[in-house]
Design goal:
9 helices, alpha/beta, two-stranded parallel sheet, Spore Coat Polysaccharide Biosynthesis Protein SpsA, Chain A, about 230 residues, seven-stranded mixed β-sheet
Length: about 230
């Protein structure tokens, strides 16, 4: 089972080297890495090109344009999504890929570990995601509800054929709600597993920039808006 790891990048010269070093250290035996240069004007492409990865360009700025460009250039059976500030542990791909032994599983996701946040936020957020996110994902996939599932945008793996059947990524979405939108459409074709063991280390920089409660409010608003739309 080949995996295509897609990394959208817009001006990520400070983070991309560490992320590529981490993803290239994966223990999974068969995977490719696709870096999508999304209208960067810094040294992102120059730095990424020093690694054994495929670098492609999407001039239309937007996370979903970048994800879709990566998907169209991928040749894996599984599409894995991470962000340019993620630091996956060496067994991340193996943990995620193992869930696809069940042929009914369409996608796998797991929590973020905000490694550069303060201890309280880091561990309370991790606990909340592991169990509350998992609860909501299971709840919304119940046969008598069927509203969608929980998917973390920078920590997920999706069967390529199912993602294609679901229409790929919705490029009309700018950012918020994109992962829930994808989860909802993918869940119509198979089971979405939210696993507490498929953890992804990532930066808390967006929370620091926008404020924790303000950003959390945006995430939850768009989650429920998308689920019930």
């Amino acid at each position: 089972m080949k995996i295509s790891v897609i990394i959208p990048c817009h001006n990520e010269e400070k983070n991309i080297a560490a992320t590529l070093g981490a993803i290239l250290a994966q223990t999974h035996p068969d995977f490719e890495v696709i870096v999508v240069n999304n209208a960067s004007n810094d040294r992102t492409v120059e730095i990424a090109s020093q690694f054994p990865v495929k670098v492609v360009t999407e001039s239309r700025k937007g996370l979903l344009w970048a994800r879709e460009c990566g998907r169209m250039n991928a040749c894996g059976d599984i599409i894995a999504n991470i962000d340019a500030d993620c630091l996956p542990e060496p067994d991340w791909l193996m943990r995620g890929a193992s869930r696809f032994k069940n042929v009914r599983v369409a996608a796998v996701s797991g929590p973020y570990d905000y490694y550069d946040a303060g201890p309280f936020f880091r561990y309370s957020s991790l606990f909340f995601q592991k169990y509350i996110y998992m609860f909501f994902s299971e709840l919304f996939q119940l046969p008598f509800i069927r509203k969608g599932a929980t998917l973390i945008g920078g920590n997920n793996l999706i069967r390529a054929d199912i993602l294609k059947k679901a229409g790929g990524y919705d490029t009309s979405i700018l950012f918020y709600g994109e992962d829930t939108n994808t989860a909802k459409r993918v869940a119509a074709h198979g089971r979405v597993v939210f696993s507490p063991s498929v953890v992804m280390k990532t930066s808390a920089r967006r929370f620091k920039e926008e404020g924790t409660f303000h950003l959390m409010g945006k995430y939850w608003y768009h989650f429920f808006k998308t689920i019930f739309s």
